[in-house]
## 1
Amino acid sequence: MREIHVDEIRDNVAQICVDAAYNLSDDVLTAFDRAQQMETSRGAQEIIGLLKENARVAREEHIPICQDTGIAIFFVEIGQDLRIRNGFIIDAINDGVRKGYKEGYLRKSVVDPITRRNTGDNTPAIIYAELVPGDKLKISFMPKGAGSENMSAIRMLRPTEGVEGIKSFVLDCVQRAGANPCPPVVIGVGIGGDFEKAALLAKKALLRPVGSPNAKLELASLEEALLRTVNKTGIGPEGLGGKVTAMAVHVESFPCHIASLPVAVNINCHAARHKTIIL
Amino acid sequence: MTSPIKIKPPLTEDVIVKLKAGDRVLITGIIYTARDMAHKYLVDCHNNGEKPPFDLAGQILYYTGPTPAPPGKPIGSAGPTTSYRMDKYTPTLLELGLKGMIGKGPRGQEVKDAIRKHKAVYFAAIGGAGALISRAIRKAEVIAYPELGTEAVMRLEVEDFPAVVVNDVHGSDLYQIGVEQYREIDGAEGESC
């Protein structure tokens, strides 16, 4: 049976925490280029130019792209034939967060919800683990800022509201969010399942490379339709007006109860940070 | 696009009344950081009849919680945070003489009214551009509420800090003006959060 030591998990987690905070991935940089081409006004183009420049400065000077280095969210796939040695995987991930956020000079943004006392090391991380076939460990990390997270919403639609109801809810969320989530955004939409499944799908959708369509054709065409619609709002880069309010809409779905149509919207800012490693 | 207007706090009324939504500014001098908890503390302090830890008259508050300063730098990444969370406290601070605020995202009607009434100005900085913005910050020093960590009040020495006027004393709102130019569908449900 393949084995992995918890120290290896900790050190790799620490490294992706820092990497995600400093280095915006290529899919996002490419989406900036596309957005800049789509914009027609100098003001909006200039804003995208500043975002590109910001990403360059962060990468070269080793400082975070955004001061909100987020609450640490992990999606972990554990191969059922893998044995984790010398400790508990959840502790190892939290140790990695502690190490990465300290050594990378990242902001510690996690507090007790009631006392508002800061935990001091950005733990605990939010960790979703699932068992998968094989003997690998896949760790996907998303530092999620609150400006965009606070604009999330979920609604339990009536089944008869269908696709039109979904579209109108997504549009409503984007309009209400306006400039707050730092557009141009990436929009994660979770459809179906139950209350928390829809929310989880919406979040997980944000892990996909920006602009990569869903493999299911009907969902890919829904993504396109939603993107066209939200980009008619005029919100634009930084909410100061423009054609690119969202760089992409990612939809994920799951079967649901005959009486239900849960829809969740989770928005990511333009600094759509995400990193995945396989150990 | 006109060239940026250079301004220096403390801001006086004659400077403020000339600023219009859409004007770009470069701020040089001292500004203070304050976000959620610091706002609550400042207003609680006023309600208890105590003096705030620094004089707000003519000053600019920057809504930010920077990352820790790495070795050799005065501050880490330091972009604006979303402003609506400060709305509840802003009218009181404007009454106390605050003249400028830097953040991102639209303000509520009560804040916009208070901006007109007290002759103040709300600027936006580029949200999510904390690395770039940090280059305009020369010095940073915690001056109040150190227990709040990144949320403590810091005195920042800035040079040519870039921002754009969103809400001016004439009642204009750059977010509304900008979005209306591009809106192709009904936006009545939108407005604010």
## 2
Amino acid sequence: MKVIKFFLVGIFFGIVLVKSEAVSWYRIYEMFKFQSFHMYGIIGSAVFLGALFVWLFKVFGVKNIEGNQIYLIPKDSGFIRYIVGGTVFGLGWALAGACPGPLYVLFGTGVISMLIVIAAAVFGTFVYGVLKNKLPH
Amino acid sequence: MEYLLKPWPWYVSGPLITLIMLLLIYFGKTFGMSTTLRTLCSIGGAGKYSDFFRFDWKAYRWNLIVVLGAIIGGYIAVNFLSDGSAIALNSQTVADLSQLGFVNAGEALLPAEIYAWDNVLTVKGMAILIIAGFLVGFGTRYAGGCTSGHAITGLSNLQWPSLVAVVGFFIGGLIMTHFLLPIIFGQ
């Protein structure tokens, strides 16, 4: 059960991303062209409900499966890394039409060439790790 | 069943993504897909080159299990839960794409112009995929998260860094879509 619950969440995630069309290159293009509400609706409703539930968890002190209070670790403070890193990612997101989750899901839909993008993404992460101490954060 | 096979509207999909995030939080974890790229580096021995990859990756095995599930979920969704309907794109989007040389926009999840083998196996096509992947991998780690970690989880937790990162996502995405794609694909 320890492992299987993550496996099941993953399957559900893959199905939702395909059925929502959030894995579609075209939907990402359309979003950045501001020509459809679809992606904004997905992300907006996910964030609205997410914020509501995270707040309710805090208010009611909801505990996780391990019996600890639910707590999201805040991201480190900073500005440059978020704006520059975010922009670099955005360039890739709009070109590949996929962010990391969809990269895997799309491979599962049978797009074998996605393995090239995944390998390049792993390499990009590697290069970041090597250059990390030289980059402004 | 008919509704299951059709594309799901945003007001169904968005809340289901919230549910996925909440389940992972409830399991004592967090929703962040780009972390798996770092884990893959560590498994591949990148710790030899940077201490950024020297961490206990076994503690992140659960996330690779999520990835494995996501791959299978993608397979299930297209093979058993789809009626083959085209993506209902804005007609202006379809027109804009045809200007860039993209035909049959929305008939598949991805454009053949980028992902079909006869385009991938050209110098330009291969470069597009490698550069796109590199930007995704480098950018997410630099920014400390991607759409799931920053846009969904971080914004749900009302974190400033995540808002800045999402603004960055849009700066990059808008530059690519409005200025670079026409250069890359325009005739």
